[in-house]
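User: Could you go from structure to sequence for me? I need the amino acid at each position, not a summary. Structure tokens:
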């Protein structure tokens, strides 16, 4: 079946990893009509807006997008395109699987957890102000509505995917009202899923436990900031940011993107690892009910991860992005 998908190349290494991913999808037999849109720095220069309304309208119309990372200026300039897109399209669930099967770590070979990060509120609401000289304030917004729906999403996923345990990650010992409200939602939702074990863990302890014994975790559900930080920590457990896929999902809409950013330190050098976006694209094919194509890509990824010299430099290999892509496509073509 032919699918219509919006593609946003993004900034930094975005265009490099997006080009690689589109080639891999084509080689794996995916039939796609790409609808290209731009967002980020170049769009800001052209339209005075890094995320113009017509791009949001296009994603709304098409329903699925593959997105490269977009740079956000630090401490000044325009606010995050990524955060704005998630909020304006109501892509409330950020899904990041951390799985050693698609990893390359000497330390752990049996990590298999999925992180569900609430995507629309918390300190990402953009409510910040200077309230006096030398004093700045940032508001953390937590609502029952958003907490309920991310918890339901995580529990539904656990049921559909044969997962055993969901843990809510929080700091309700300190933020009794906001994180307390999040926990209350998680508890209420958990009571509707008696077949899934439910647990709670304080975020600082969770970070320490993830480093020491990550195998103990199954499904984690978190508010936005904790999810952002712990999913990068999780990426480190399986070999780094070049490997961890992601998806932003709402009701009837999904934007697939890697967990990593635009990596300005390596942009344009031809060395970026496209695997995280390629694995995101495999998940996109599952979302589009194309499990055979997703499986073909995933098997090829597992195969190439066992051939160190063919990998990109972040994973200890010698290939640049284009060479790596050719190796992966050769595997897909030879194994079918
Ligand atoms: P980053 O993820 O871009 O990079 C962190 C480190 O990981 C860098 O050393 C980088 O070289 C390396 N890295 C990341 N992806 C890689 C890949 N595919 N292959 C090889 N190495 C890779 O994080 P950062 O430096 O904190 O952020 C850079 C910019 O990206 C910022 O403007 C930030 O706001 C933005 N960002 C965007 C998204 C998104 O678009 N969803 C997500 C995170 C950060």
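Assistant: Here is the amino acid at each position, in order:
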């Amino acid at each position: 079946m032919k699918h219509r998908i919006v593609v946003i190349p993004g900034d930094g290494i975005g265009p490099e990893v997006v080009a690689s991913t589109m080639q891999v999808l084509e080689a794996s037999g995916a039939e796609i009509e790409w609808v290209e849109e731009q967002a980020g720095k170049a769009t800001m220069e052209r339209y005075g807006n890094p995320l113009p309304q017509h791009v949001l309208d296009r994603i709304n119309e098409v329903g699925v997008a593959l997105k490269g990372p977009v740079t956000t200026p630090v401490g000044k300039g325009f606010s995050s395109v990524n955060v704005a897109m998630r909020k304006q399209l109501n892509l409330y669930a950020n899904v990041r699987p951390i799985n050693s099967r698609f990893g390359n770590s000497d330390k752990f070979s049996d990590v298999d957890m999925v992180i569900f990060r609430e995507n629309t509120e918390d300190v990402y609401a953009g409510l910040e102000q200077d309230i006096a000289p030398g004093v700045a304030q940032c508001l953390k917004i937590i609502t029952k509505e958003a907490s309920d729906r991310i918890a339901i999403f995580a529990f539904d996923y656990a049921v559909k995917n044969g997962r055993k345990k969901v843990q809510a990650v929080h700091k309700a010992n300190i933020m009794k009202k906001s994180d307390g409200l999040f926990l209350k939602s998680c508890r209420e939702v958990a009571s509707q899923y008696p077949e899934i074990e439910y647990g709670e863990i304080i975020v600082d302890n969770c970070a320490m436990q993830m480093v020491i014994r990550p195998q103990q975790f199954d499904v984690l559900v978190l508010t936005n900031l904790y999810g952002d930080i712990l999913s990068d920590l999780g990426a480190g457990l399986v070999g780094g940011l070049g490997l961890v896929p992601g998806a932003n999902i709402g009701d009837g809409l999904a934007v697939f993107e890697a967990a990593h950013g635009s990596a300005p330190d390596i942009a344009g050098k031809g060395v970026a690892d496209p695997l995280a976006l390629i694995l995101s694209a495999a998940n996109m094919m599952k979302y589009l009910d194309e499990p055979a194509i997703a499986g073909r890509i995933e098997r090829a990824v597992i195969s190439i991860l066992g051939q160190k010299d063919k990998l990109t430099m972040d994973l200890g290999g010698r290939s640049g992005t284009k060479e790596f892509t050719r190796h992966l496509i050769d595997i897909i073509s030879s194994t079918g």
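One structural detail worth keeping in mind: The CA atoms of residues 98 and 113 lie 5 Å apart.
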